[in-house]
Design brief:
Strand order of the largest sheet: 3-4-7-10-9-8
Number of helices: 4
Number of strands: 13
Helix content: 10-25%
Structural class: alpha+beta
CATH superfamily of the largest domain: Myoviridae tail sheath stabiliser
Number of domains: 2
Shape: elongated
CATH architecture of the largest domain: 2-Layer Sandwich
Oligomer: single chain
Low-confidence stretches: 62-69, 222-246
CATH topology of the largest domain: STM4215-like
Order of helices and strands: HEEEHHEEEEHEEEEEE
Mean pLDDT: 76
């Protein structure tokens, strides 16, 4: 079973697709008169929550400019990978494709798994956070579908449903008035992914041997046996006292 090396980059493709969804979010800041004074793109990175919070705390409190550059910001990370029995199908099903007139490729049915991903939104004030959240929520009702090219060799494309499960909110303000404030939104997502095994190559059957015979008890009926296999020839063996004629059919 494990003597074939293969790698389809399934998890990597899913993580990249997830990040690309949130890579173009921007926020707008206005003055007291309602005029737009700044439009800022929100940076996105793959990073754990605690790592980013540690980075914020390490910034000097006297340099407010550096802190404005850091926030707002978004980060995400994969936290779990679980088998999904609800999407299981028969393992005997196969995907097949014709490579040429002499060979074909096949692959057994995929194995379903769910990937749990957390998206973190770090902002300094409430309005920035609300702008980001409002640009995300309308697309998840409660899921959003992406299309992944899972197996290029077989031209297999999969829908990747992404479900929004929960939304959390916390205000990481502690300490005196000189301590920086970080408002954190946490969105929990589930991606329904399929893992595919190796691709097997097979020959094409271009000749079939059919044994046509007439039974003495069924004089007016003719039965035939069609040989199926993965090689170029097939043989049928008949047991019993019957008379038959070998027939060769070329394709």
């Amino acid at each position: 079973m494990l003597d074939q090396r293969f790698y389809w980059g399934t998890i990597r493709k899913a993580i990249v697709a997830f990040g690309s969804m949130f890579n173009g979010i921007t926020i707008e800041r206005k003055d007291s008169a309602g005029n737009s004074v700044q439009i800022q793109k929100v940076p996105l990175s793959y990073s754990p929550k605690q790592k980013f919070l540690a980075k914020i705390r390490q910034q000097p409190n006297t340099d407010e400019t550096n802190f404005q550059v850091i926030l707002p910001r978004m980060g995400f990370e994969m936290i779990a990978l679980d088998y999904d029995p609800n999407r299981k199908i028969s393992p005997l099903q196969q995907n097949r494709t014709l490579n040429s007139s002499t060979s074909a490729s096949s692959q057994y049915a995929p194995t379903p798994y769910n990937i749990s991903v957390l998206l973190y939104i770090y902002v300094k004030n409430q309005d920035d956070g609300l702008q980001i959240i409002e640009q995300i929520l309308p697309y998840f009702n409660p899921d959003y579908n992406l299309t992944l090219k899972a197996i290029p060799e077989l031209d297999i494309k999969n829908d990747l449903p992404i479900l929004l499960n929960t939304i959390g909110f916390e205000d990481d303000y502690e300490g005196d008035m000189t301590t920086r404030r970080a408002i954190i939104w946490t969105l929990s997502f589930t991606m329904k992914l399929n893992f595919y095994g190796p691709v097997s190559k097979q020959g094409i059957i271009n000749r079939v041997v059919a044994n046509t015979f007439r039974n003495s008890d069924l004089t007016n009926q003719i039965q035939s046996i069609t040989v199926n296999g993965s090689d170029n020839t097939g043989n049928a063996i008949l047991a019993g006292n019957v008379s038959y004629i070998d027939t060769f059919i070329d394709f």
